[in-house]
Write a structure and sequence with these properties.
Blueprint (H helix, E strand, L loop, with lengths): L22 H14 L5 H13 L1 H8 L2 H5 L52
């Protein structure tokens, strides 16, 4: 592609494994964020509070915002984002966790979210 034909959109893939050393502190921070959200309807607030109290992965997902990751990057604007978190059995010594081993990645295992769109940032 020439410079005129190059897309202005870039897909940024980020995969992280986070160790939760203090689940109570994480949950408390998520509950604090929910309490600060003045725009959140009461029913949604109750659901969010319940979810983060039951699952540290939900608490983490509530606190991590893709907009925060790119909002200070000059010349960019977040067009679309989707993210999720889940508990995992992590063993950095197994080949399954080789984050650099994705040279052969072809995108075939991308999952669609509810609206049929690819869940990655575009």
């Amino acid at each position: 592609m020439s410079g005129d034909e190059t897309s202005r959109f870039v897909r940024l893939r980020v995969e992280m494994v986070v160790e939760v050393g203090d689940a109570e502190k994480l949950t408390g921070a998520a509950l604090g964020r929910i309490a600060e959200d003045e725009q959140m309807p009461g029913e949604e607030r109750a659901h969010a509070e319940s979810a983060v109290q039951e699952d540290v992965a939900e608490a983490l997902a509530y606190l991590v915002d893709p907009f925060d990751l790119v909002s200070q990057v000059p010349g960019t604007e977040l067009s679309q984002a989707s993210w999720s978190s889940e508990p995992v059995d992590y063993d950095p010594d197994t080949p399954d966790w080789d984050l650099d081993g994705d040279e052969d990645y072809d995108g075939a295992d991308d999952e669609d979210d509810e609206d049929g769109e690819d869940g990655d940032v575009r």
